[in-house]
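Can anyone check this?
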Amino acid sequence: MISSIKISNFKSIIDATAKLPHFGAIVGLNAAGKSNLIISIELTKLLIAGNVDLSILADRYVSVPEELFNLRDNSPTRPFSFEFEISAESDAKYLFGISIALKKNPNTASTLVVDQEYLKKVSNGSDVLIYKRNSDGSIQTNGEVIPPTINISNDKLFIPLYETPDTDKVKQVFRNIRLQSSDVKNLRSPGVFLNGNEVSRSDRISNLVGRVMKDTNLYGQFLKIIKTLMPNFSDFKEIKIDTEKIKGNEFMILMQENSLQRELSSRSFSEGDLRTFAIIATALEAPSGSAFFIEEVENGMHPGRAEKLVEYLDTFSKVKDIQIVFSTHSPLVINELKPHNILFVSKNGHGTEFELLSDSEDITRIKALLKEGGSVSDYLSTKLSKRG
């Protein structure tokens, strides 16, 4: 699980540290930097678990690489960096950091390169270096410096290649991270084809529900929860399809409603329904000790359903020991949470800032407000109006 993230020179964030709750919400005005926090997690997961090169960052998130850097004072000349404080299995704690620089090319577009990368184990209050990768490509480990080698590409991280008990624990943390975008197009996507073969999306509805359906006990829990959140829903039906484009067997999930005589495909369901399916399926199949990050959890949903959904997520977090963090604008959802569950995000002349409400200098006033019958959303409305 991720305890905190220190971010520098990335998009709206100049220098800030976000302490992440075990369960809770990221709250703030539009464009305050909530999505940039989740993006920092997602792109680090891609680089580690997917072992991809840095070009995917520009292709996925921005039009040109310069947009990944904070644009104040010509900041692309300074690398952007993330440092993750991680709790892994067996109560091991680590600091994993990466620094990404912009390489100006005279005749082609600018590219991204790894400026620095390191892993430290936190033991008895001190940091023990596992490895450090320098800007020249050399690797320092156990006091020994390994000269640069052509096997370490400057546009990829070193950790996917480095096999030790400590690096394996950290890699597993990032492999176990689940992310749910606010964009419902991914859920409806039929997949991506390369040379006639499908590269499956792990987050599309057919994959998510199909995996849950293979476990009878898990599927029973899934249907029970879905029918509570969506009373008209009946069941899923899996059909096999064979096409010339798809090699091997492929399955499509159809959905049934009580009042209808035939099934519906995912394209016929609303954005809120699809996100409900996806969030519950992901939380149910997530292993203990994993992390699940959700953008705008209430998107497309009736406020009452969003409130019930978050109650289920709270239960999953406790029972399965999963870190679940979501962004939200819903007062109903916010009022279900305590100050230690809320990460407040704001932006001022110094860029994006993060603050757990339980660490706020206003915590005494917040507690007094709650005791008097007020709500957390009342406090945040006042705070947001001042920042807006």
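Reply from J.R.: I decoded it. The first strand starts at residue 2 and ends at 10.
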